[in-house]
């Protein structure tokens, strides 16, 4: 059996102030996967990736990259990793080309190989024209693309992206998605990302792990996760405003405004029943759409359940004490 | 990493450091030249002519080695302290931390960068001094050796300072309150033979005194202290501080949470 691209066992991180960011998590990411690590702020996503990239020291546990134990040979393991952090972490006063060439140098890449590679990546990411400019003159989206180019200079087999499209406009986000899809598909690069945009995970990733309070509460495929989705909310735009909330037997209906209804649909319920009920009350529907992306509903529900369980455990502990 | 890859990584880092201080030359190379010119004019020419001889040499000849050494010390130290701390502050140190570069290469890269600036400024100050006096070097190899070792030692010191620093103020405290007083009291402007016995003893505790004196010995052939002993002390400090800096880097002190 092929070694996973990334294997994490019993990973624990306790910060100096006593905060336990990771509580012994296990995680496997297969080679060639497009994997998302999801979770609310402070859940432990960035800490997990920080340990994998050697930016954070683990308290316990084991991390292997393509079977290489990082405690034994981190240098060899690091060759396989390209890292795009959440915050800009390059010298803003350096030239764009110098930043990517220096990174290649740190990996021991000779300049005769680094120059064409830099040109290829900067052209692909639309930064070639800016190569001789100072990095601080770039827009936010360009700076983010610069970090992607820098991370790919040494041709890593795993690309780790921490919130890659945070603060990036929609058009640029789509083009970055397309680029990531391309390197995953054409070059077989394993991609691991954390994101707040669940639409991003749903659209790009094949597998996801949901992390909350330092524990992985779910680790499965996006497809599997979506089949478990019990409810979806549909928005109905009405031809004419309604004064009161229409009654649709078996459905929970809410009024967004006088011309729009939000209807919660459980699995197994038929949309036709909604149209029939509205038609019988003389209400004409102009258009209909899904309110939130589906994964978001699932994610919110899982995190809420996790938080409730944690609150309950804390309350039980308090009572016992 | 293979030896060739390590050489490429080290050269990349050293070159980057040299590019950094040459890019901002009005902040890094110009000020020491102007300051030292002032010292030569005021202390060497104007006041020095009234002081007379010091250890058998004109005052100008006496202070030239000390002033060159003073600029090497302060520039080596401050180059690494400010460059490494800027890398920490801007988080660009992460570029190196995620790479397979061994920590000793990272440390050596910054130290060599600091030495390049310290020695570069030393050369500039030496050239400036030629406008005021005629320099003769009694022991050229010793002179070069001791200035290189001193630049290395203070570059490592600057690195440790930057590792421990949490804010920009922290990298100016040591140069202002420790390095400058020790340099001024390290026999740059006077021979410790002028001091009363007690203060001569106190001066012997100042490590910079040894560096300045050995360097002056290289130029003039006279020293307040035994040269061999001083060289051994400098080498010892380098080994100990390099080990300490590497140990701190391996433990992620100041850079890993």
Automatic annotation (TrEMBL), chain A:
PROSITE patterns listed in its UniProt record: ABC_TRANSPORTER_1, ABC_TRANSPORTER_2
Name of one Pfam family that matches: ABC_tran
Keywords on record: ATP-binding, Nucleotide-binding, Transport
InterPro entries reported for this sequence: AAA+_ATPase, ABC_transporter-like_ATP-bd, ABC_transporter-like_CS, ABC_transporter_ATP-binding, P-loop_NTPase
GO MF annotation: an example: ATP binding
All copies of domain ABC transporter, residue ranges: 6-238
Superkingdom, taxonomy of origin: Bacteria
Keyword Transport: yes
Protein name in UniProt: ABC transporter
Record organism: Halomonas urumqiensis
From TrEMBL, chain B:
UniProt-annotated location(s): Cell inner membrane; Membrane
One GO CC annotation: ATP-binding cassette (ABC) transporter complex
Membrane topology note: Multi-pass membrane protein
PROSITE patterns, A to Z: ABC_TM2
Cross-referenced Pfam families: ABC2_membrane
Any one GO molecular function term: ABC-type transporter activity
Keyword Cell membrane: yes
Residue stretches making up the ABC transmembrane type-2 domain: 23-252
Main location: membrane
Transmembrane segments: 30-47, 59-78, 104-132, 144-165, 171-192, 204-222, 228-249
Alphabetical keyword list: Cell membrane, Membrane, Transmembrane, Transmembrane helix, Transport
InterPro entries in UniProt: ABC-2_transport_permease (IPR052522), ABC2_TM (IPR013525), ABC2_TM_bact-type (IPR047817), ABC_2_transport (IPR000412)
Signal sequence range: none
Family of the protein in this entry: Belongs to the ABC-2 integral membrane protein family.
NCBIfam families, per the entry: PRK15066.1
Name assigned to this protein: Transport permease protein
């Amino acid at each position: 059996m092929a070694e996973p691209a990334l294997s994490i066992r019993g990973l624990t991180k306790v910060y100096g102030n006593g905060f336990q960011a990771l509580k012994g998590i296990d995680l496997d990411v297969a080679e060639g996967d497009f994997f998302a690590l999801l979770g609310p702020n402070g859940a432990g996503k960035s800490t997990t990736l920080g340990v994998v990239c050697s930016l954070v020291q683990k308290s316990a546990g084991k991390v292997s990259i393509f079977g290489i134990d990082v405690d034994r040979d981190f240098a060899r393991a690091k060759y396989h990793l390209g890292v795009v952090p959440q915050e800009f972490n390059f010298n803003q006063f350096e030239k764009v080309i110098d930043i990517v060439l220096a990174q290649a140098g740190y990996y021991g890449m000779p300049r005769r190989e680094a120059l064409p590679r830099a040109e290829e990546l900067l052209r692909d990411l639309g930064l070639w024209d800016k190569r001789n400019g100072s990095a601080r003159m770039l827009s936010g989206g360009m700076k983010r693309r610069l970090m992607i180019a820098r991370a790919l200079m040494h041709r890593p087999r795993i690309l780790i992206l921490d919130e890659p499209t945070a603060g990036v406009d929609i058009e640029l986000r789509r083009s970055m998605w397309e680029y990531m899809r391309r390197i995953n598909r054409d070059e077989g690069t394993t991609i691991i990302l954390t994101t707040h945009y669940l639409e991003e995970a749903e659209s790009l990733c094949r597998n996801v792990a949901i992390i909350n309070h330092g524990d992985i509460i779910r680790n499965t495929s996006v497809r599997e996760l979506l089949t478990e989705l019990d409810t979806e909310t549909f928005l109905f735009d009405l031809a004419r405003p309604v004064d009161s909330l229409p009654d649709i037997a078996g459905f929970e209906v809410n009024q967004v405004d006088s011309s729009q209804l939000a209807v919660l649909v459980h699995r197994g319920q038929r949309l036709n029943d909604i149209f029939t009920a509205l038609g019988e009350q003389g209400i004409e529907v102009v258009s209909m759409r899904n309110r939130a992306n589906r994964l978001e509903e699932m994610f919110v529900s899982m995190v809420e359940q996790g938080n409730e369980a944690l609150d309950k455990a804390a309350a039980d502990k308090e009572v016992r004490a | 990493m293979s030896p060739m890859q390590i050489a490429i990584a080290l050269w990349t880092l050293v070159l980057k450091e040299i590019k950094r201080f040459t890019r901002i030359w009005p902040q890094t190379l110009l000020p020491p030249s102007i300051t030292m010119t002032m010292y030569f004019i005021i202390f060497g020419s104007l006041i020095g002519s009234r002081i007379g001889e010091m250890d058998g040499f004109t005052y100008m000849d006496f202070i030239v080695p000390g002033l060159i050494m003073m600029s090497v010390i302060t520039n080596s130290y401050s180059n690494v302290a400010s460059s490494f701390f800027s890398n920490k502050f801007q988080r660009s140190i992460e570029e190196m931390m995620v790479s397979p570069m061994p920590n000793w290469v990272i440390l050596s890269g910054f130290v060599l960068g600091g030495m390049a600036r310290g020695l570069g400024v030393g050369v500039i100050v030496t050239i400036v001094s030629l406008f005021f006096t005629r320099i003769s070097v009694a022991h050229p190899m010793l002179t070069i050796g001791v200035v290189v070792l001193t630049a290395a030692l203070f570059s490592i010191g600057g690195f440790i300072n930057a590792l421990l620093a949490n804010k920009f103020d922290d990298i100016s405290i040591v140069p202002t309150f420790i390095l400058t007083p020790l340099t001024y009291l390290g026999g740059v402007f006077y021979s410790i033979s002028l001091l009363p016995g007690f203060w001569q003893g106190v001066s012997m505790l100042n490590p910079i005194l040894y560096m300045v004196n050995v360097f002056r010995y290289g130029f003039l052939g006279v020293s307040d202290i035994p040269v061999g002993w001083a060289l051994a002390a400098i080498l010892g400090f380098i080994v100990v501080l390099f080990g300490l800096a590497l140990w701190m880097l391996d433990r992620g002190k100041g850079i890993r949470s």
